[in-house]
Design goal:
The chain has ten helices and five strands, in the order ααααβααββββαααα. The chain is mostly helical and 174 residues long. α3 packs across α9.
Length: 174
Amino acid sequence: MKTEKNPAVIKSLSGQRVAENEILLNAIEENRVLFEVLDERVRALYRELKKEIKCEECGECCKSIIVVFEDGDLERLADGIGEERASLEKRLFKKYEKFGCYVMTESPCPFQKNNLCTVYEHRGTECREFPYFETRNFSEIYRYVFQGYSVCPFHYNVVEMLRQMKEFKANKEG
């Protein structure tokens, strides 16, 4: 399988595969027994993809995905950029009490320049963990992976690998 790294191509192809992805997502959810196998396969694929895909060549996550920060993340960022936490929160974030998080109100992220994070050492947990494959099992994040399919080359290529698995090919027609 050829690894697709071009964000424009990924965006275009993903628009053509919405129905197919729904079928695949349903097949995954119907066959939860496979999650242990999928966790291992996705982890192995991610290790291989990291050799080919470089986040700094893409940066789409910072342009297209909602940036979420936790309390400690705001403190770290404020300290790192030398701004008062309250000022930073007011300027760039909306607090969601129900979820205990802060969502960045600007998009793309104002700290991204030339596909690089200008506050890399001070970035939030969500940014540190994205695309999540190093910190979570696929079985925990598979819905996020499908949501990021049109944005992230890692997510895109993982879903495409799943599409090729014999366990899911039979479900292709529904």
